[in-house]
Amino acid sequence: MAAWYQDLRTDNGPIISARVRLARNVTKYPFRTKLSEESAKDMIAEATAAIKDDHTEWANQIQVIDPATYTENDKRMFLEKHIISPEFIKNDLPKGLLLQNDFNVSIMINEEDHIRIQTISPGDDINASWEMANRIDDLIEESLEFAFDKEYGYLTACPTNVGTGMRASFMIHLPMLEKTGQLKNMLPAISKFGIAVRGLYGEGSESMGGIFQISNQVTLGKSEQDIIQGVQSVAKNLIDKELWLRDKMMDKHRLDIENNIFRSYGILTYGRKATVKEAMDMLSEIRLGYALGILDLPKPYKNIYQIMMEIQPGHLLWVAEETVGKILNETEQDIMRADHLRRNFSRN
Asked: pTM of this prediction?
């Protein structure tokens, strides 16, 4: 099975991917802030056994990774692939990572909570993500007792996760809403529905290339389906507004829009240097160009979001470390980034 970011569905519409994350804590252990190093190691062993002892074809696809053996570039690349979180990297306790071969499932052990189950699907198929996350949750719970209260639901380290412990999210491309500033104006209304709009890598991160994450803020007092439907509803409203704006802007500024898109295509095809921001902005224009039917030039060899991911600093530094054993400075990264873009866009 291909990784979610290699799937054609990531390019089919504004929604790039759908993710479900479940936060769980094991009853017999204290929360992470009170967890000893020995207990943290025990947690890793027990959670790993709960998955690997399943002996199904799916369980055989799971890799057991010790993050302590990874370099900083490895960790940064995993963060850019949305496999791990910044909180997971910062935690000093022993940590474990269970990772499906196609990167569509990751289970972080000893992140903010004892266990974080994460599933990602290409496009808008959030129900597929939920079904897989729920399956894994049930499997682990056959071996471990999760902290659960009849009144409040699953107990978590952060009060905002108490209840279902679920975060449902879409990664969504909203270039026109961002360019016109209308997305910023919509944020107060969106927050009233218990939905947060964040940057490319979630809380505390900035948007790049017009890409945002939208997710639920509240898990208490709602069922999993309530949460999913709420995120879907807000996503639909954002997409409707985005598509309306695209039509409006094309009517008024078609030449400018076409110029930006074709200039971006030319620079990506022949450029020799590109910063992350420049490249992400141009790739956003390209994605918009294909969506609007403006670009009649050959598509790149990979999905646009996959290219966006592969030109991030962690990916470039990891490739350089693996291939030439060299640490790149910023200028060298910009050159390598442009080389990578040319290989994907060149028609030769």
From this structure: 0.92
